[in-house]
Amino acid sequence: MDIVSALFCESLNLRQAGPGGPTRIDLTGVMFSMAAPSEPPVTVAPHLIVLIRCRPDEPGNGVLEVVFRNEAGDEVARNASPFTVEPGKFTYRLVRGELTFEAVGTIEAHCRVGQGPVIVVPLTLIPAPAA
Rounded to the nearest 5°, which phi and psi values hold at 57? Predict the structure, then answer.
């Protein structure tokens, strides 16, 4: 199985492309950075959407593992979730990690299915807006 995309987003919506048509996925608020809700240290819980493809000749069972690492490479959160997808189809997983930023900076989500390749998605916390 392959990760087709992994992005931090505000929301997603699934819809049919016409009667009996294929499913469309609308992603809203794709982000690679966000303003701190207050001065660090602060905990945020962004949504990570991971889209996964299962080839027709694959069994359709897997485990998505996401390890969140800070700039020093230290693990700050981890999520592992088993899933099933019909061979030849796609699925998505919504991962919501509670990420504590000790200071403004970047945390990376290291995503992989089973022992497959790792896809890295950064999320940078920028200073809170001035009051």
Answer: -95, 10
pLDDT in tens, 8-32: 999 999 888 888 878 888 999 999 9
Q: Give the SS3 label for residue 1.
A: coil
Which pTM does this prediction carry?
A: 0.91
Supply the CATH classification number for the domain 2-126.
2.60.40.2550
Q: Which residue has the tokens 């504590």?
A: 100
**Cα separation of 110 and 112, whole Å?**
7
> What's the token pair of residue 86?
């019909």
CB distance 113 to 1 below 8 Å: yes
- What pLDDT, on the 0 to 100 scale, is given for residue 5? 95
Residue 46, Cβ neighbours under 10 Å: how many?
19
Domain boundaries, the chain: 2-126
